[in-house]
Amino acid sequence: MQIKINGNAESVPDNATVQNVMATRKLPETGTVVVLNDEIIRAEVWQEIILSGGDQLEFVRIIGGG
Amino acid sequence: MADKLIIGGREIESRLFMGTGKFADYRLIPECIKAAKAQVVTVALRRVDFATPEENMLKYLPEDVILMPNTSGARTASEAIRIARIAREAGCGNWVKIEVISDQKYLLPDNFETLKAVEALAKEGFVVLPYMSPDLMAARRMADAGAAAIMPLGSPIGTNRGLKTRELVQILVSEIDLPIIVDAGLGRPSEAAEAMEIGAAAVLVNTAIATAENPVLMAEAFGKAVEAGRQAFLAGPGAQRRFAEASSPLTGFLRDEGKTTP
After folding, report:
1. What is the rounded CA–CA span in Å between residue A24 and residue B173?
2. Which of B231, B161, B226, B140 shows the shortest CA–CA distance to B189?
3. B217-220, Cβ contacts within 8 angstroms, sequence gap of 24 or more
4. Distance (Å, whole) CA B209 – CA B188
5. Minimal CA separation from A5 to chain B, in Å
6. Contact by Cβ (8 Å): A27, B48
7. Mutation site for A-interface testing, chosen from B48, B71, B131, B157 by largest number of A Cβ within 10 Å
8. Could you confirm whether B97 is annotated as catalytic?
């Protein structure tokens, strides 16, 4: 199915979970915030949330800024 | 009466707020925070770059800092509001520096969009500190909308050009009943001291510290300058004059009047 990851259209397996998608990326050890359709998804449920077609998934982190 | 800075109901110990951008190495950040004695520290939010994932910057920040996430990247009020909500949900606390910019040349803030974001986020219980172009009417509206402080720029972000907006900032200091925090463009400790001398409640410095040859030493210098500037403001500087006024009386000189010794 098609979803958006960090703004880019991508294909992921049907019924993929947030955790499944994260496993396919190189993410920093800690500090990644997961946003699914404007909602923060906490780490405890990454394995439980199943994605749907058209979902907008964002991986966000805190960086230096002024 | 103690000289306290209170923002969002919290007593802030240090009038030097520090940015965390542009540091060559994240490890410099905690050293600079310590040297500057900064307490409020800004951070930004960005999407993860899968090609080059970086380490988590947050682990370099001391436990007792007050985080102030900025909404940098936002071009509109609604983008800023979204970033603020994500930052709060991500555990950054409820302070937010509203930064709404669509001018890429000078990075000047959009006061109109910033005001809209102040209105919305203040209603949602954020402690809102808008970064703005020093316009009295805009500042008044932001204050009325619930801003906790007003943050006018000194000069454009990253330019190190100092307090170019001095007179407009002075007007804000005198007319707005909120802390006025000069944010952006202060390039040297003397410029931070100048902002404090005219009555700013605090200053926010990033580039001048992060890009100094010795950022830790520069952070310390800024810390001292902010303290000195605040003390000078409280001490009540003497008047400026057009003509000279001697330091000692013009009588009792060690000479006879009317005759100059050859």
Report:
1. 53
2. B226
3. B217/B35, B218/B32, B218/B189, B219/B18, B219/B31, B219/B32, B219/B33, B219/B35, B219/B36, B219/B38, B220/B35, B220/B36
4. 9
5. 10
6. yes
7. B48
8. yes
B59–A33 C-beta distance less than 8 A: no
Tell me the C-alpha distance between B202 and B16, whole Å: 6
Cα–Cα distance for residue pair B254/B250, rounded to 1 Å: 11
ipTM value > 0.90? yes
What is the residue whose two structure tokens read 């009466």?
Answer: B1
Cα–Cα distance for residue pair B45/A65, rounded to 1 Å: 8
pLDDT tens-digit profile, chain A (66 residues): 999 999 999 999 999 999 999 999 888 767 889 999 989 999 899 999 999 999 999 999 999 999
Distance CA B185, CA B160 (A): 5
